[in-house]
Specification:
There is one protein chain. The chain has ten helices and eight strands. By secondary structure, the chain is α/β, with parallel strands linked by helices. The strands form two sheets. It has a five-stranded parallel sheet, with helices on both faces. A three-stranded mixed sheet has the order 1-3-4. Helix 1 crosses helix 3, helix 1 packs across helix 5 and helix 5 packs antiparallel against helix 6.
Amino acid sequence: MLGVIHHRWYSFLFSRGGRSFDLLKKLSLSINRGERLILLSRDERLIGQTFSALCGKAGAIESLLLIDGQDTVAHPELLQRKKFVYICNPNHIPGDIKTIGLVRLISDLLEHGKSGRAKFYIRFNLEQNGRLKFVNLPDEVQIDILSAYLFSVGADIYMADDLFDSPSSRIVAQFAKQLQVMAQQEKYLIYVTCDTMLAPQIGDRAIYLTSDPLVAKSYRYTSEN
């Protein structure tokens, strides 16, 4: 079951971006060490293309992705030597997956031993929530489970896709504090959302496509492209 979850998760990601990278070419994405970058978008193709590029699937497309100002085409080792982790939007988790299955997958990906897995089971109250489908959990519990993985895995580049629906100020403040800690650890952070009010609360810089009708007219925080 865990293998099925993992396969469905990543098959979905790679399939939604397409192979042309047409949108990412327009964006001119650059990520910098220790910066919390907000990608303002809800375009599944752009998100998929960004994911694929960070996975090193872009091939020899020039100036598609810059890391600390260096082109990953000219310096492919930049991606090869950096670990990348992605957390999907909760709505993209298949609706038939039970909470206990997802937590087991996360625990296995984190290479938890018995004690680490037991802490997760207690933290997420799996005795009560384990048999429930993940999509039926309260929003706060969903966020807690996904962010636990995001903030526990040892990676260099992190990308999270719109974990919040209607977040409370407490959740946003807690999440922003966790992101700040990771930024101080000089991680590369990308958070995807189309919430223009959330962006300045959790990010240092935001980018978007000027052709995107969801954000181009309403966003006043900071912009690129």
